[in-house]
Amino acid sequence: MRKLIVTALGGIVFLTTSSTSCKKKNDGNCADVMCTAMFTMINTKVTDANGRYVKLDDVYVMREKNNDIYRPEQQSAAWDSSYVVIDDGYLPKMYNSTETFYFIGIKNGIKVVNEPFVISADCCHVSKQSGKTTIVIP
């Protein structure tokens, strides 16, 4: 019985620490932070004025700070007509910061989307602070 109680308490302590450590600020040092296995993606939809999905030929995000270009691997999710703006793949370049990115969309060789998104990151995941859920183009 005692072994069962010790095991249960150990499990509770582990779950509590692992679920809160993702949020822990560590003065910019992310080496000691345990993160969840969740992979975060920030999405946006692109539609025309009638609400129809717009298929873009090329999409990428540009970091305002240094014009760094990022193209997430999972680009278009046809089942819900959305595009990935940024995901946790970019996280190592922006730990514990908040920055502006521009979601760029190209159709027929013309830039038809240039929308700002403010993205923050902790030691584990990116998150959207501001930016459109749906971008409407003419």
How would you describe this structure in keywords?
single chain; 138 residues; mainly beta; Immunoglobulin-like; five-stranded antiparallel β-sheet; four-stranded mixed β-sheet; 1 helix; 9 strands; elongated; disordered N terminus
Structure write-up:
This protein has 138 residues and is mainly β. It has one domain (37-137): Immunoglobulin-like (Sandwich). It contains one helix and nine strands, in the order H-E-E-E-E-E-E-E-E-E. The strands form two sheets. A five-stranded antiparallel beta sheet has the order 3-2-6-7-8, with no helix packed on it. The termini are far apart.
CATH fold label: Immunoglobulin-like
Biggest sheet, in brief?
5 strands, antiparallel
Name the average pLDDT. Answer: 82
Shape: elongated
Q: What is the N-to-C succession of helices and strands?
A: HEEEEEEEEE
What's the structural domain tally? Answer: 1
CATH-derived architecture: Sandwich
- Strand order within the widest sheet? 3-2-6-7-8
Number of helices: 1
Total count of strands: 9
Share of helix, binned? 10-25%
Q: Helix- and strand-based class?
A: mainly beta
Rg (C-alpha, Å): 19 Å
How much of the polypeptide forms β-strand, as a percent range? Answer: 35-45%
User: What's the CATH class label?
Assistant: Mainly Beta
* Contiguous runs where pLDDT drops below 50 for at least 5 residues: 1-26
CA-CA gap between termini: 68 Å
